[in-house]
Every structure is written in structure tokens, then in C-alpha cells.
Write a structure and sequence with these properties.
With about 425 residues, the chain is mostly beta strands. It has a single domain (about 1-430), classed as YVTN repeat-like/Quinoprotein amine dehydrogenase (Methylamine Dehydrogenase, Chain H, 7 Propeller). Helices cover about 5% and strands about 40% of the residues. It is built from two helices and 33 strands. The protein has helices spanning about 1-10, 270-275, and strands at about 30, 85-90, 105-110, 115, 120-125, 130-135, 150-155, 155-160, 165-170, 175-180, 190-195, 195-200, 205-210, 215-220, 235-240, 240-245, 250-255, 260-265, 285, 290-295, 300-305, 310-315, 325, 330-335, 340-345, 350-355, 370-375, 380-385, 385-390, 400-405, 415, 420-425, 425-430. The strands form eight sheets. The chain has a five-stranded antiparallel beta sheet, with no helix packed on it. The radius of gyration is 21 Å and the shape is globular. The model is unreliable at about 1-45 (pLDDT under 50).
């Protein structure tokens, strides 16, 4: 059975490997400028493709940097990073064959960051981008697969899940293996650690909880499953002793973190849509203290009360990227290239600006946002055509475009006030 799931998974995801001859960063170079009795939340598919109230100015003064950042809730907050990007350097690895279907994160432990290659090598870099350690815990046979790793670091402990059903813990300081286990199905989700437990979702839409001490499975929750799987990772958040996750059908589910007992089951799609679940792409779940927000590529953006699962509000926004809470606002970018500013309390759309107006009219239909981060007065957005856009929050206009690659690049990551981006054959540092 695992071979069938693995085959499906590998059709869409392909790993990456570091070139053994490329062990250092290059020199800096200039950049070119239950569900029968439940109600379906959303079914309207009309996409908004026009600007609105574009003269509205957003005040970005006196904002608190990093005060809201929370890994458990995917709350990115406002980050501090260099705005004037004009140079790049990179760490090269062999080209990822199917990068357009590849989603991963750089892992940070506060002072260092960690990445991997398609042979399962895990590499830890220091703040000067020098290799601290390089470890591999895979057999010769396992290395033949294009390995995809999801990782999470907490208190010098690195937890790793992969696409062949293996999961293990590593000492973050030394890179030594602490324990290693195998699951019946591969994993494709974010990872969360909370109260000495590890949470992840496998390809069968099963949320599994493991002991952080020895990897033993403590409980699991089985949500509805489909044969065809979306290439988008399942998203996880933890809030008020509940773990929330979305499955490949678009359901949002919350269970008790201690025993896996169901708390809420919220379907967002009709049964007819289930037949096309493969094409559904949801954004990551994001939460503040009281509410959860998410969106998808079917023109559905919504806010749900975390305490009772009641829908707060909904809007017609066609977006697959992770939204950001920004003080009293919510920011998101639609798949068509519009920057939306919403009131976080009632969901009213305050402003819509066209940030893809800088692209050729015919070409822009093929351009999609990948992910963005927010600074004190501007956003950095990456796209599937290898560009990084600098967008002024105040007026919502695109101020500059930097060419990184000709094809898809990852969302931006912030490390030591510098921006890191993954492309199909390297990690790019912008400064």
C-alpha cells in the first residue's frame, strides 16, 4: 500500500541534492532590476479583478516588529529585514526536477538555519552561511527516492518527517540521531510541537500525534480521505489546547491536543467539489487569539471563531498564499495579482490595488504569487516566474521588481535581517 501512495506522491514532488563540488556561497552579484448535517460555507466563484478605494493610505508608523510572530499559529507578524535589495549570493545544489510542485520551509533555530537535499542529507548553516554539520540517516535503498523532508526545530531538537513515511528526531547542536520511526503512509504537512508532543498529517488525511521523547504514536484522528492528493501541504496550527488542520478536501478540523477527541469539523466545499479535490489549493491556516483565517483558489476567504467554530465573515478573494495579520488589518494577495487590505474584525475590504500592473498584459495571466512577508512599510512578494516585488503598504503600489530566476521561486524567508529564497538549484541570499 505504501508503494502506491509513494508513487502518487513522487509524481508531483521531486527532491533536491546539494552539488558536492559547491560547498560555499558564491560571490555577491548585482540583481536585475461528519458532514450530512453540516452546512457548506462557500460556493460562489465570482473572482474580483478590479481595484477598489485605491487612494486609501495605510499608516505604517509606530508598528511593533516581531511582536505577533508565532510558529504555532502561523502568525508571521511584522518582520525586520533589509529593504534596499541590490545584491545576491547563493548556495548551489543539483536542480529539483519538479520544483513547481515542491513546497518546503527553511528551518531556523534562532541563530542558524537548516535545509536538506534529495538524498536525505540534512545541513545546518551558521549566520555566516558556513556549514556546521551535515548528517544523513537513510539507507542506500532509501536514498534512491527523491526525498522530501519537512522539519521543525524547537529547543535544540530537530523533528523530521519525510515522503516515504519515516520520521525521526535529531540533536540540533550535534546533528546526532535521537530516535527514528516509520509510519504506514508518507507525510505531507507542516509540523507542530506542543507540550512534549509532535503533530503531523500523512497522505491519508490522518492527523497523528507522537511523543517527542521517543516517537511513539500517542493517538490519531482520521478525517475523510480521497485517492488523488493535492500537492499543497496540509496546514496545522495549535491554539487553546486544540490542534487545527485542513485536509485535502478543504475540511477544517480541530481536535484536543491531549487525546485527539473531535472538537469541530467544518467543511468548506460541497460534495460535488470533492470529486475535484485534487485541484483545490488552500492557503495556510493562520490564527490570532480568537479567530482563524484561510483562503483558497476557489474565491473563498473566511474568518472562523476559534472557540465555537462559527463563521465570522467571508469574502470573495481568490488566494492560495498565506495571509498576514497586520495590526488592525489583514493582508493577502489574490492569485490574479491584487493586493487586498481587509478590516480584521468584520472582514470589510478596505482597499484593492493591482500590483501586477507592472507586467505585460498577456503574460500576467500566467504569473501567480507564491508567498509574501511584511516589513514596517512594505511587502516582499515572490512569484512563479522568478520575480521578487517590493510593494509599498501605504499606497499599495509595486515600487520595484528584482529578477531572481526565470521560473518559480519559494516564498521569502527572513534570517538575520536578510531575505532568503529557494529556487530550483540553490538557496538565494538577498542583501
Amino acid at each position: 500500500m505504501i508503494k502506491i501512495y509513494l508513487l502518487i506522491f513522487l509524481l508531483f514532488l521531486s527532491g533536491c541534492s546539494f552539488n558536492s563540488k559547491s560547498k560555499f556561497w558564491t560571490e555577491s552579484t548585482e540583481l536585475k532590476k461528519e458532514k450530512k448535517n453540516t452546512k457548506i460555507l462557500f460556493q460562489n466563484k465570482t473572482v474580483t479583478n478590479q481595484e477598489f478605494n485605491k487612494g486609501l493610505k495605510i499608516d505604517t508608523q509606530n508598528l511593533k516588529i516581531g511582536s505577533d510572530f508565532n510558529f504555532l499559529t502561523n502568525h508571521q507578524g511584522i518582520q525586520k529585514f533589509t529593504r534596499e535589495i541590490n545584491k545576491k549570493s547563493r548556495f548551489k545544489f543539483s536542480k529539483i526536477k519538479n520544483f513547481n510542485h515542491f513546497e518546503t520551509d527553511l528551518v531556523f533555530d534562532g541563530r542558524n538555519f537548516i535545509f536538506f537535499d534529495n538524498k536525505g542529507n540534512i545541513i545546518k548553516f551558521d549566520r555566516n552561511f558556513k556549514i556546521i554539520w551535515k548528517k544523513n540517516f537513510y539507507s542506500k535503498q532509501e536514498k534512491k527516492y527523491d526525498l522530501i523532508l519537512s522539519m521543525y526545530s524547537q529547543n535544540n531538537l530537530l523533528i523530521v518527517f519525510d515522503n516515504i513515511g519515516k520520521y525521526y528526531a535529531i540533536n540540533g547542536n550535534s546533528g546526532d540521531l535521537i530516535w527514528s520511526k516509520n509510519n504506514s503512509y508518507p507525510f505531507n504537512s507542516q509540523i507542530k510541537i506542543f507540550d512534549e508532543k509532535v503533530y503531523a498529517v500523512d497522505l491519508n488525511n490522518i492527523l497523528r500525534c507522537f511523543s517527542i521523547k521517543n516517537g511513539k504514536e500517542l493517538w490519531n484522528y482520521k478525517s475523510e480521505n480521497t485517492f488523488l492528493k493535492s500537492t499543497k501541504r496540509n496546514s496545522l496550527i495549535i491554539s487553546n489546547d486544540l490542534v487545527y488542520f485542513n485536509n485535502s478536501l478543504g475540511d477544517i478540523i480541530s481536535v484536543n491536543t491531549q487525546n485527539g477527541n473531535l472538537k469541530q469539523y467544518i467543511p468548506t466545499q460541497s460534495s460535488a467539489v470533492y470529486e475535484n479535490a485534487f485541484s483545490l489549493i488552500m492557503s495556510d491556516l493562520v490564527a490570532d487569539k480568537d479567530n482563524l483565517i484561510s483562503s483558497n483558489n476557489r474565491n473563498e476567504f473566511y474568518s472562523i471563531n476559534l472557540k465555537n467554530g462559527v463563521l465570522n465573515w467571508k469574502q470573495k478573494i481568490n488566494s492560495s498564499v498565506r495571509p498576514i495579520y497586520f495590526e488592525n488589518f489583514i493582508f493577502t494577495i489574490s492569485n490574479e495579482g491584487y493586493f487586498f487590505v481587509l478590516d480584521r474584525n468584520n472582514g470589510n475590504i478596505l482597499r484593492i490595488t493591482d500590483i501586477f500592473d507592472v507586467f505585460n498584459y498577456k503574460k500576467r495571466k500566467k504569473i501567480k504569487p507564491v508567498g509574501f512577508i511584511a516589513g514596517t512599510n512594505f511587502l516582499l512578494l515572490s512569484t512563479n516566474n522568478g520575480k521578487v516585488l517590493t510593494i509599498n503598504i501605504g499606497d499599495g503600489k509595486t515600487k520595484s521588481i528584482f529578477k531572481i530566476h526565470n521560473n518559480k521561486i519559494s516564498k521569502p524567508f527572513v534570517f538575520e535581517k536578510e531575505v532568503l529564497i529557494i529556487k530550483d538549484d540553490s538557496i538565494i541570499r538577498l542583501n
